[in-house]
Amino acid sequence: MTIAEVSRQYDISPDTLRYYERIGLIPPVHRTSGGIRDYTPEDCKWVEFCKCMRGAGLTIEALIEYVSLVQQGDGTMQARLELLTEQRRLLKERIAEMESTLARLDRKIAMYHEKCTGPCCDAFSQSDGAGASAQNGQNA
Amino acid sequence: MTIAEVSRQYDISPDTLRYYERIGLIPPVHRTSGGIRDYTPEDCKWVEFCKCMRGAGLTIEALIEYVSLVQQGDGTMQARLELLTEQRRLLKERIAEMESTLARLDRKIAMYHEKCTGPCCDAFSQSDGAGASAQNGQNA
DNA sequence: CCTTGACATGGAGTAAACTCCAGGGTATAT
DNA sequence: ATATACCCTGGAGTTTACTCCATGTCAAGG
User: Fold this and answer.
1) Which of B129, B134, B139 is nearest to B106 (CA)?
2) Contact by Cβ (8 Å): B84, A94
3) Cβ pair B91:A101 closer than 8 A
4) DSSP secondary-structure letter at A57?
5) Nearest 5°: phi and psi at B91?
6) For the segment B57-67, what is each residue's pLDDT rounded down to a tens digit?
7) Is A31 helix (H, G, I), strand (E, B) or coil?
8) Could you say which of A84, A87, A106 has the minimum Cβ distance to residue B88?
9) pLDDT tens digits along A63-120
């Protein structure tokens, strides 16, 4: 598979694909005798994997480390397991934080709904501020 | 409250606090007669709100727009509601994506557990690749 | 063989989001 | 009054993660 095909398939520019390879975010891609990249299914899987993990917010640094461990062979299984476990923990933390922010957004939206559909729409004037509930010192 | 106190309380550098104010991510902060920032509880709430929303991945652009709407007064309630609803939708999408990546990480971790504790630890040698399951074209 | 379009490399340029700095004002303890 | 610590602004610098570019190579059609 050429770099252009991979680019289309995963919606990542050729420049970015080369960049990812250069910094070690994906292992070196297979080449033709002429030196042109010819992505194997394995190469593609790395591209997809990195895209997925980056999308979830894993750092490039952690992923480079993981790729490096895989390239060092089977002796690094334990280290890989630890790395992935730590990244899983961090990901779960981020999700929890986002869930709580989502709940907060929901409360704020509910308040705007009340204000917009309440008895006297457009006639309110409490300073809204950061919380649609500016009166009680703390919200979420 | 001085900028240094707010900085400590929310773990945001004074430079970043000034930057946030400059770009409109928080409304103008109250000043002393001498021109020095003196954060009111309301100002602090904005700082906390922005920190929370930024932490969940809302764009600076969307937050600036929200702050701007709030400053424009009560006529913008409907627009604020729409903005928040859209941001909520995007946030939920991101969470869903991260949940699925979390599940994928879990599967991969489970596979490493098997390999590390299985019958012949350290004696495997299937090329691992991006999936700890390099044999079946697709994983997750 | 030659043209044409995609690909290669190394390095420079860019956008976002800070972060740092110089030069100068403010405030409080001595 | 003055030293010291903190704050101000405008602007330059930094980091991250790309993105673009100049120059040269590769490969398929005519």
Assistant:
1) B139
2) no
3) yes
4) T
5) -60, -45
6) 999 999 999 99
7) strand
8) A106
9) 999 999 999 999 999 999 999 999 999 999 999 999 999 999 999 999 999 887 766 5
Nucleotide nearest to B35 (CA to C1'): D8
Question: Vertex B68, ends B64 and B74: CA angle to 5°?
Answer: 140
- Cα–Cα dist B94/A136, whole Å: 30
SS (HEC) of A41-54: HHHHHHHHHHHHHH
Classify the phi-psi angles of A26: left when phi > 0, otherwise alpha if psi is within -120 to 50, otherwise beta.
Answer: beta
pTM here is: 0.85
Percent of chain A having pLDDT more than 90?
Answer: 81
Other CB atoms within 10 Å distance of the CB of residue B31? 11
Q: Shortest CA distance to B7 belongs to which of A12, A62, B21?
A: B21
- Å from B31 (CA) to C15 (C1')? 32
